[in-house]
Each structure stands twice: as C-alpha cells, then as structure tokens.
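Structural biology now treats backbone shape like a language. To illustrate, our science desk offers a sequence and the tokens encoding its fold:
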Amino acid sequence: MKNNTCTHCGTVGLAEGFIEDAGEHSRGYARWIEGAMERGLFGGAKRIGRPRRKIAAFRCPECGHLELFAADEG
C-alpha cells in the first residue's frame, strides 16, 4: 500500500499495521465476520459457520486516517 493514496486527504504512501484484539481468549488480532451480528445464549456474538477474514489495516502518515480491508480467510 506504499503507493496507494489516502481516501481522506490524498497523501500517497500508507503505513501497514493491524487492529489488535486484546480481549479475553483473543488471538491478538481482529477479524471481520460476514453478516449482521447476532447474540448467542450467553450474550456473545454468534460466529460458528460464518466466513471470517483477517483485517488488513493501513494508516495515513499525514492525517491518521485508517483504511481497513477484509483480507484472505483466516
């Protein structure tokens, strides 16, 4: 994404990073899950059997705007 342009301010060159998930029992990174969120019996999000994708995150060094992309499944 070094040659990509920020959709907010037009600066060229985005810094790659990731969105951290530091919650209990987390894997350390956030994922995008397809479909509207539904809660299960114990209040957590239902996600079994739903496609999941790692989130690729890029930050504009000028304005701080984040560009997020749902990457390959994982």
User: Anything to note?
Assistant: The two ends are 21 Å apart (CA to CA).
